[in-house]
Amino acid sequence: MTDSITIRRATIDDLETVVRYNAALADETEDKSLDRSVLTSGVRRGLEDDSVCAYYIAEVNGEPVGQTAITFEWSDWRNGLFWWIQSVYVDKRFRRKGVFRALYAHVQAEAKAQPDVCGLRLYVIRENTRAIDTYRNLGMTVSDYLLCEDDWAE
Fold first, then answer.
1. Domain enclosing residue 33, as ranges
2. Is residue 145 part of a domain?
């Protein structure tokens, strides 16, 4: 990547960008069309309430080109918080150019600076081998856990 990638915490001014990227993520990875009003409300809540999540925006020359969100899980076994990486999306024009690597490095550095954070986690669709390879190349490992859920929104 010839242009430098900057990472910043998202603000309410990024609402439409985050909504657009989340909608594209659902469409591209799960072939899902999200209810735009529910998605917009959910993103707004995340942007306005730090206890819900933290969004990060990757920019090139001031243009948003990617995003991720961090949510939090308490681990009594470790007496610490796992930061969950979620809502990862990179604009198609900027994929394979280091955008997610920059987002990950930023989030990892922030997490390591917090004494109560014990690690980073994310979930990925099994068939998304390209993403899994990317995460492995960043030093993440595939865990032995499977995700089980009771999703009432479906």
1. 5-137
2. no
Strand order across the beta sheet in which 54-60 lies: 5-9, 54-60, 63-75, 80-90, 117-122
Instruction: Give tens-digit pLDDT for 26-78.
Output: 999 889 999 999 999 999 999 999 999 999 999 999 999 999 999 999 999 99
Structure tokens at 133: 């390879």
Q: Residue 67 falls within a domain, yes or no?
A: yes
Q: What is the pTM of this model?
A: 0.91
Return the CATH number at 55. Answer: 3.40.630.30
31: Cβ contacts below 8 Å, ≥ 6 apart: none
Alpha-carbon distance 126 to 74, whole Å?
A: 25
